[in-house]
């Protein structure tokens, strides 16, 4: 148990680092200083402190939870965590305040004659299992589905995958990480043949430049942004904000460059053009470690088209790639991107300078994109052309939005096409899963079925007749939500919802199951930098609240699959993890043993001979490199990464005479995702009580709109009325509006478009056409 410091000297060193970051954090709001945390905790008296990860975003901050009389009464940053070094953002610091909410789900509820009736949990689980079996018997195994989450723990995601793919034999499993990280996954796989970043957060201490691509890190990942600000103060490191609107990140950066939505594709190609034409390409690195490839173009926008995973790849040579880039000179791209020739050349010169180390950071702006896979590929192209990759302070880094979107969704594989190792289309991967799961190999289907958007379309069509959602709130988070609420209300589909609090999704459920909150159970998360973090149960949950993993196991047993789920209630987390890590044995993805996870605040995989691999694909740091070269991109058969030829293509829906504005959606520092937790934390709710629509002052003046006026935002799909915000938190460009999506009472996702990247299947929440009316 992680309860004491190994030495006072180490403690003082860690606190000194935390203090330096805290000073940098004072440059923008949203960070709770280490000293404030200590004073608040001291006011609670003698407490027992237990370690774990934060419940919210994918940064994976280490926390210490103060326990008194069986209740969580305080939270502070863990000074031993290499992620946050004692610091927390406002969400992390206040996280436990929501679990005592008066509307907490404490018992199962079953809808009877239109009314929810409190029901013993065992009886509710009996009903879930019988309905699932009955649906399969009547309509086939592909008529049932599970929709899980990047907030699910590794054991929760693992047993969901085992139930659906190994026991029932359907690939009808997907997760809400499809809405946020699928393009990152597809980008890593197509370029490197292996998922997840090759670097780690320690890059921050080495980089000379941080370039953020469409990413408001000051509000989305404030602790990491504070570490960047510390390096800005300490070493003169520079932050360049490349975005479609001015945000708190913009104002704290050294330079802010704004671009027209969707044209990031063109600007990235223009940077590559400049790198090559100015002789800045690392020719030796490219010749030894890269291939050039052309993919398909005009591939559609995911609007009711069929599901396909593969992109046709055609090898090309360097000269063909160079010729392709002639259409992306800074002069040509500046005309439609609204990025000046000077700024394009500035960005290229940063990447092209062999004496400057550069880290690129991005999150939803690049991933929630109808060409999200391409956009990820293009940033990798920049780093590969310059050889600035897989080295301390040099690399592309995709940040995640959920605490275990990496560990559970991506590593465990809770996507329709994934297995705990590899993909369902690969016979070798199916055979490995069948062996570990002890099921017939033929039971695991070889073809994917429904990704998230298509899954809920299938509910609407009537193809899916039973769906179980866990740890997610799709009736607030899905694009074009107005379509799916009536679909889930149909009697033809039996809906099961596992959650901690009532949500718009639980409002349409036939059965509501009371889930344990994260410190009320043991669990394991995996964060953005491949760091696996374990925690033990800290407090008892109220009523009959139960971990999602155990409810899944109980349903599996009731369906007759008990022999496949031989786990004990007391130790199921550890037993599942020991089974799961068999999938990842070896130097390329070896997971740390439980004893290491319990001892440390987190361990980065690959974990080889007792040591974390901080930089992958670089033989100096990665023991899996065995081709005798300095770099080995071992995800690809020839050990080389791919530089992709990817063109600019316009968005599927653009402003026109009837709908003259771009709509962009996102988050704010006070709230997390659909707000089901943070809106129940009084201090956060008071700080940001409702969503709003940001307008440029010129547009507001043209429409006669002032701050606080109610504005109706209308698309071809739906409408939402919100108060106006002008020159407050953020500033959209003229012709663009922005709204956060945390507010279930002001449903901006009724308005958004459900187009998606045809390769990754991730929807584009950042771009659609709307009109506005003053109400």
TrEMBL record:
Catalytic activity annotation: 2 Fe(II)-[cytochrome] + nitrate + 2 H(+) = 2 Fe(III)-[cytochrome] + nitrite + H2O
Binding, substrate: 741
An annotated GO BP: Mo-molybdopterin cofactor biosynthetic process
Names of required cofactors: Mo-bis(molybdopterin guanine dinucleotide); [4Fe-4S] cluster
CC terms in the record's Gene Ontology section: extracellular region; membrane; nitrate reductase complex
PTM: Predicted to be exported by the Tat system. The position of the signal peptide cleavage has not been experimentally proven.
Molecular function terms, GO-annotated: 4 iron, 4 sulfur cluster binding; electron transfer activity; iron ion binding; molybdenum ion binding; molybdopterin cofactor binding; nitrate reductase (cytochrome) activity
Domain 4Fe-4S Mo/W bis-MGD-type: 47-103
Cofactor, free-text remark: Binds 1 molybdenum-bis(molybdopterin guanine dinucleotide) (Mo-bis-MGD) cofactor per subunit.
Chain sites annotated for binding [4Fe-4S] cluster: 54, 57, 61, 89
PROSITE patterns linked to this entry: 4FE4S_MOW_BIS_MGD (PS51669), TAT (PS51318)
Keyword hit for Iron-sulfur: yes
Binding site for Mo-bis(molybdopterin guanine dinucleotide): 91, 151, 176, 180, 262-264, 364, 368, 473, 498-499, 521, 548, 665-674, 749, 766
Any Pfam family the entry gives: Molybdopterin
Keywords for the protein's UniProt record, in alphabetical order: 4Fe-4S, Electron transport, Iron, Iron-sulfur, Metal-binding, Molybdenum, Nitrate assimilation, Oxidoreductase, Periplasm, Signal, Transport
UniProt-annotated location(s): Secreted
Family classification: Belongs to the prokaryotic molybdopterin-containing oxidoreductase family. NasA/NapA/NarB subfamily.
Described purpose of this protein according to its UniProt entry: Catalytic subunit of the nitrate reductase complex NapAB. Receives electrons from NapB and catalyzes the reduction of nitrate to nitrite.
Subunit structure, interactors included: Component of the nitrate reductase NapAB complex composed of NapA and NapB.
UniProt-recorded name of the protein: Nitrate reductase
